[in-house]
Amino acid sequence: MTKLIIVRHAEAAGNKERYFQGHTDGKVSEKGRLQLEKLSERFADIPFDAIYSSPLSRAVETAEAINRYMKLPITTDDRLMEINGGCWEGNKWADLPTLYPEQAYNWSAAPWDFDPDGGESMRECYARLSEAIKDIAAQNDGKTVAIASHGCAIRVLLCWAKGWVIERLNDVEWCDNTGINIVEIENGVPTLISENDSSHITEELSTFAAQKWWRADQRGEMCYDD
User: Fold this and answer.
1) Residue 211's closest CA among 159, 168, 174, 170?
2) Inter-residue contact 172 to 89 (CB < 8 Å)
3) For residue 189, is it within any domain?
4) pTM of the predicted model, to two decimals?
5) How far, CA to CA in Å, does 130 sit from each of 118, 136, 155, 156, 206?
6) CB atoms within 10 A of CB 217
7) Does residue 27 lie in a domain region?
């Protein structure tokens, strides 16, 4: 059995400024750095045997904070990156319904059908992330592994870890920045142990506490400008 501790990166420019950052390398914000301090403190008493990260800087900085006390080599894996938004990259969320109405509808109401021009479909993302996690678990059998990844990527992974098809993605809640999720994998079969634990940060440091889009999205109604 392998234990995976999957952490969303700290608040970055796209989270703060409300644009689609996907593969765009948005830098960690001032609040994000404070979140990372609290995350490091949380991991001072959490042992792990290996650590992996998306290569995007906001994830790597999060992995470094997780790894402050263990000081293990950080392995980057492109398959842990956020969904590639293609033509959506860098656009303000508030502008997306006008620019790309069909895909904006899909993102919120039917995310399993999200497929932006020049990017990656949600189904491709689901396949990529689940294969990456199975490989990491197999390479670290019997160990505890920390993983730094991204919001949509983790939401997809949690859907898979629950044993759900991608068409149930809207039943999975979003994870706050630096939120922690624990998945155990045995013989390739995942079990979700805990989900979206951000108890190490105060409401003042929470990204979600200052935003409302993530609440609306659970009902399939994206709030693009909050």
Assistant:
1) 174
2) no
3) yes
4) 0.94
5) 22, 10, 11, 8, 28
6) 18
7) yes
Q: Look up residue 174 and give its two tokens.
A: 């979003």
Smallest CA-to-CA distance from 150 within 50, 78, 61, 81 is with 81
Q: Could you tell me if residue 39 is inside a domain?
A: yes
pLDDT by residue, tens only, the chain of 226 residues: 999 999 999 999 999 999 999 999 999 999 999 999 999 999 999 999 999 999 999 999 999 999 999 999 999 999 999 999 999 999 999 999 999 999 999 999 999 999 999 999 999 999 999 999 999 999 999 999 999 999 999 999 999 999 999 999 999 999 999 999 999 999 989 999 999 999 999 999 999 888 876 455 444 445 443 3
Closest CA to 103 of 196, 22, 158, 8: 22
CATH number, domain of 40, equals: 3.40.50.1240
Domain that holds residue 139: 2-217
d(CA 33, CA 58): 10
Assigned domain for 183 exists: yes
Q: What is the rounded distance in angstroms from the CA atom of residue 13 to the CA atom of residue 33?
A: 12
Strand-pairing partners, residue 186, are 189
How far apart are alpha carbons 172 and 7 in whole angstroms? 16
3 state DSSP class of 148: strand
**Pair of tokens at residue 153:** 């990527």
Structure tokens at 175: 């994870």
Which two three-digit tokens encode residue 165? 């098809």
Distance CA 68, CA 140 (A): 21
Please report the pLDDT score of residue 211 as a whole number. 80
Domains: count for the chain = 1
